[in-house]
Amino acid sequence: xxxxxxxxxxxxxxxxxxxxxxLDLVNGIKRELANVKEVDIVVCPPFTALAGVSEALLNxxxxxxxxxxxENGPGxxxxxxxxxxxxxxxVRYVILGxxxxxxxxxxxxxxxxxxxxxxxxxxxKPIVCVGETLxxxxxxxxxxxxxxxxxxxxxxxxxxxxxxTVIAYExxxxxGTGKTASAQQAQDVHAxxxxxxxxxxxxxxxxxxxxxxxxxxxxxxxxxxxSLPDVDGALVGGAALEARSFADIxxxxx
Length: 254
Fold this sequence. Notes:
Layout: E1 8-12, H1 19-33, E2 40-44, H2 50-56, E3 62-66, H3 83-87, E4 93-96, H4 99-104, H5 109-121, E5 125-130, H6 134-138, H7 142-153, H8 159-163, E6 166-169, H9 183-200, H10 203-208, E7 210-213, H11 219-226, E8 233-236, H12 243-253
Parallel strand pairs: 1-2, 1-8, 2-3, 3-4, 4-5, 5-6, 6-7
């Protein structure tokens, strides 16, 4: 199978990096990857660093992403961030439904679907995360869990909007643990997700959607993972916090 989907590799910095540290990191990434055009590169710093990182990325080949957003527009929602606030800093992508938010903030699929719709309404591209826990994997219900998350989190989106959505498959048991899904495990779930998209929409739409893998991606396993037929990039956590390791993941993926 020949992939005609452009790889997208995004660094999720999570709750790391002060504004000053974020500038150091993004400037290092810029230096490392200044000439890379073959991959869509995204960095997702914490909200407090968006302004500085946005300015640093002007006229670069790297796009800015945010780690979350509200399903609501501006209003009386203390502690939340609305899409127009992200747009002010030239944010292009937003991570939605990350497993940590599903776990700690108890975010359900229908909320993630509303956030995805709100993102698209403001011309932001959602990176919608799905994935099973270790207990679910060991109970052999990965497809049941992931299929339900995909259907629920994309509910209400048109074919056109789904094609502008990135899906990130992140087996929860492989996030920050040093464990990585085997190449076959990753490919199997990515192919399954593409099959769900075919059922929800059609085969042509499913072929156009980019599906990232997330879960202890590092320079040493990037080439094997990114070469899989249905893996279209990576959502990188810990290895994205150091410019050289993030750059090596991207270089090893080309």
